Amino acid sequence: MSEPRVAVVHERFTEFGGSEAVVGEFVETWPDTQVFAPIVDPAGVRPPLATVHDTWLSRAHAATGRRSHAPLLPFVPRALRGLPLRDGYDVILISHHAFATQAVFATDAPAIAYVHSPARWAWDPEFRAREAGGRAGQLALTALGRLARHAELRAAPHLTHIIANSRAVADRVRDCWGLSASVVNPPVRIDRFTPDPTVEREDFFLCAGRLVPYKRPDVAILAARKAGCRLVILGDGRFRPQLEALAGPETTFLGGAPHDVLLDMYRRCQALLMPGVEDFGIVPVEAMACGTPVLAVGTGGSLDTVRPGVTGEYVDHGPDAAVVDGFAKAMRAFASTAYDPGVIRAHAVTFSPDAFRIRIAETVTEVLSR
Fold first, then answer.
1. For residues 73 and 64, what is the distance between their CA atoms, to the nearest angstrom?
2. Residue 135 pLDDT > 80, yes or no?
3. In whole angstroms, what is the distance from residue 5 CA to residue 10 CA?
């Protein structure tokens, strides 16, 4: 079977993160791929991506100084339905967060959705309340959530196949859309994260990533206070002022540090803490690529990445107070020497970009051969 002619649709390139890295791997897998997105900020486009075909929403975004894409989101479904995808493609590969599956109405070709998640802020009222940031934000996000739910439910039955990025997201697809999904975990650049046997572990735990409510760094801070353990917070975001007010003297904030500092922290900490419920979770795999064990809440993406007793441990999911207690107990009892860094690293390799490209190509080929 010859290589398929692929078009990739992504919701927006306004910053570079895990989902944009996935699109990059699609392009690595099929080098002649054409990429489309309603909103494109050049700062959100990195190699191997070169040209991204955008819409009038990019110009509207630029005209507002690219301060926020949020006011443009109600216009995104229509822009996606108007993409030029009718001719020249064997398959449309859709990278979906909330609205991207609307592209299924712009094509007659088979459409495969790689689902990072059904829009959590649309389907989960608790998640929406944490992310809204006040009464006005709550009202706006509630209205946008209704639009996103309607858009997802309208498009989902027209998809040829759905790929979820974790078992937890596959369960969410089933619960929200009433459809089944296969699972292909996203790629992690493990080549940038390696063990160093000359670096000794130190007596602190690490919490790394954007400081936003759903990642629950507040749980890590409260657990550190309760356990009397040192904690380093690496990252920045709008939640930082509240977290600094919550923290005790055992917690140190390093801000948005460069890669070499992150790598050093992964290598020296006792363990990475993952207190939030992630769709997948890139950060814990980066830590494991350094031979570092992970303490994670036992639900969501951690079920795909953490192997209890081998690469880390689970803390039972539940009410906040119980989760804080669980992390505090695990931190007090934790000894990184009980884990083999080589085994942890070997597990992380299974999430490499090479492994992702093989799995995604096999899945697309199988769908097109039906």
1. 14
2. no
3. 17
CATH 3.40.50.2000, the chain: domain bounds: 6-187+352-368, 190-349
In tens, the pLDDT along 298-317 reads 999 999 999 999 999 999 99
What pLDDT was estimated at residue 57?
Answer: 95
Read off the pLDDT band of 141 (50, 70, 90): confident
Query: What is residue 5's predicted lDDT score, i.e. its pLDDT?
Result: 93
Measured distance CA(260)–CA(257) in Å, rounded: 8
Query: In this structure, which amino acid lies at residue 237?
Result: G
The CATH class for the domain spanning 190-349 reads alpha beta
User: How much of the chain, in percent, has pLDDT values that exceed 90?
Assistant: 81
Half-sphere exposure for 49 (CA within 13 Å, toward CB): 27
| pLDDT of 134 | 65
For residue 131, the model assigns a pLDDT of 64
pLDDT bucket at 128, cuts 50 / 70 / 90: confident
State the Cα–Cα distance between residues 324 and 23, nearest whole angstrom.
36
Tokens 């959590």 found at: 120
CA nearest neighbour of 50 among 29, 69, 83, 23: 23
> Tokens 């301060």 sit at which residue?
67
Under CATH, domain 6-187+352-368 is a member of which superfamily?
Glycogen Phosphorylase B; (3.40.50.2000)
Q: At what angle do helices 341-349 and 282-289 cross, to 10 degrees?
A: 130
* Dist. CA 57–CA 73, nearest whole Å: 9
- Catalogue the E-assigned strands of the chain: 6-10, 12-13, 34-36, 39-40, 52-53, 91-96, 111-115, 161-164, 182-183, 205-208, 231-234, 251-255, 272-274, 294-297, 312-315
